[in-house]
Amino acid sequence: MKLKNSTTSIKLHDLHFKPFISEEEIKERIEVIGKDISKQFEGKNPLFIAILNGAFVFAADLVRAAKIQSEIIFIRIASYHGTQSSGEVKTVFGLDKDIKDRHVIIIEDIVDSGKTMHYFLNDLKEKAPASITLATLLIKPGALQFPIEPDYIGFEIPTKFVVGYGLDYDGLGRNFKSIYQLEKSKEN
Ligand code: IMP
Ligand code: MG
């Protein structure tokens, strides 16, 4: 498949997406966040925790924009519907590093309802890190159902489905360099 340039709309499965945030805008914003993180964590050897799959592209750019000594690990948060009354259960895979007394910076692609981060942040707090910082590339304030307040936000966006720059629609779209927004719900 040949990737089109960012001025044209794209089609993934049955849906059409239009250009929304350009490669250049993303790059500029991440440079700013990287500088802020550098100032805040200089000399503290922070541990970045990137959430797979969606945050892999943002994580690669952010850790390089933060020009300080740091470490990074990648984890996956899987959710399934349990039988408890609470409904959904979240399981974390890959958090094999001792984070006690570490300055932890979570890298997430997008906070939608906030549910994933809500559960994960509670889990992390129990492991007694020195601090927890949340950096998310995107947030949909209109969709929030949990009290999540990221420390670093790339872009606040409307409650519409987006793809690209790590984010997917049913597996597709992660490798686009810019971000696209849902245009039409069905082909017509
Ligand atoms: P939350 O738990 O509702 O905040 O959902 C967060 C997760 O849902 C993200 O990490 C994404 O994997 C996925 N997600 C939410 N909105 C979008 C979107 O617009 N595009 C692609 N994935 C999304
Ligand atoms: Mg995600």
How confident is the prediction overall: mean pLDDT? 92
Determine the N-to-C terminus distance. 23 Å
Q: Based on Cα principal axes, name the global outline.
A: globular
Class in CATH? Alpha Beta
Q: How would you portray this structure in words?
A:
This protein is α/β, with parallel strands linked by helices and 188 residues long. The chain has a single domain (25-157), classed as Rossmann fold. 21% of the residues lie in helices and 34% in strands. It has three helices and ten strands. The chain has helices at residues 23-41, 56-65, 115-125; strands at residues 10-12, 15-21, 47-52, 71-81, 88-93, 103-111, 131-139, 152-156, 162-163, 179-184. Strands 5-4-3-6-7-8 form a six-stranded mixed sheet. Strand 3, helix 2 and strand 4 (71-81) form a beta-alpha-beta unit. It is globular, with a radius of gyration of 17 Å. The mean pLDDT is 92. The structure holds inosinic acid and magnesium ion (MG). Residues 54, 109-116, 161-163, 167 line the site of inosinic acid (IMP).
